[in-house]
Specification:
CATH class of the largest domain: Mainly Alpha
Oligomer: single chain
Helix content: 55-70%
Radius of gyration: 18 Å
CATH topology of the largest domain: Four Helix Bundle (Hemerythrin (Met), subunit A)
Shape: globular
Order of helices and strands: HHHEHHEEHHHHHHH
Number of helices: 12
Low-confidence stretches: 9-27
Number of domains: 2
Strand content: under 5%
CATH architecture of the largest domain: Up-down Bundle
CATH superfamily of the largest domain: GntR ligand-binding domain-like
């Protein structure tokens, strides 16, 4: 039986934040949305691991619902790229490979720095970004830190003034978090300076430039931050052969 001990109850998950894939989830029954949020949170926190089977009956028992909202939630998560569906094997948490990770981050490179620059020009309030960084610094484990970092990055583009751009980046944000889970699970424990410390320093530099009103510098620092993460964790095959 799959381990689902850390899944939240649907009622608690529903209050955790905005519905995932706002457009799609808005058309779903509220219980299905709550189940979807609970499963998504468990995936992005690393509680449900890449490749782990998502058995409808097990999830339904843990969440205290029937199989119907679980089935609908898994279909929506599959459409978002967090879950894979196989007619013979059923659903499973998506396994992230290097090529997929690079594609996700390539899309972010095209969109997120520009959105940040627009937010800086618009005079966005960065207090929530500071709060997200504080949550990351005080995180009890890597899963909690990953979710805080996810919130920080949303604050970087939330003030860009383009709802469509925000929605596109929101959709990428969940796939980005899945990539991050795959990366930190493979990081050795013996590192003198874990990658999250390096990333936290980069986050503070990006925020400092944004608060200073330097849109061009903030965007450049964010672009370098995204690029360095991919280079460290998902290098091109040619690079891997020379490591």
């Amino acid at each position: 039986m799959m381990s689902t001990a850390n899944l939240s109850a649907p009622e608690a998950s529903a209050a955790a934040g905005p519905a995932f894939l706002t457009g799609a989830a808005g058309a779903l029954p509220s219980r299905t949305v709550a189940v979807l949020e609970a499963i998504k949170h468990a995936i992005l926190a690393g509680e449900l691991r890449p490749g782990q089977p998502l058995v409808e009956t097990d999830l339904a028992d843990v969440l205290g619902v029937s199989k119907t909202p679980v089935r609908e939630a898994l279909k929506t998560l599959a459409g978002a790229g967090l879950v894979t569906m196989n007619p013979y094997k059923g659903a499973a948490v998506r396994v992230v490979d290097g090529e997929q990770a690079r594609h996700v981050y390539d899309a972010r490179l095209l969109l997120e720095p520009e959105a940040l620059a627009r937010a800086v020009v618009a005079g966005h309030d960065w207090r929530s970004a500071h709060q997200a960084l504080a949550h990351a610094d005080s995180a009890r484990d890597q899963a909690e830190r990953s979710l805080a970092n996810r919130a920080f990055h949303r604050e970087l583009y939330a003030g860009c003034g383009n709802p469509l751009l925000i929605r596109m980046l929101d959709d990428l944000r969940d796939q980005t978090a899945l990539v991050s889970v795959a990366a930190w699970r493979h990081e050795p424990d013996w590192l003198a300076h874990p990658s999250w410390e390096h990333e936290a320093t980069e986050h503070r530099a990006v925020l400092q430039a944004a608060e200073g009103g330097d849109a061009q510098r903030a965007a450049a620092l964010l672009r370098a931050h995204i690029t360095s993460f991919v280079a460290r964790n998902f290098p091109e095959p040619a690079q891997e052969s020379h490591r």
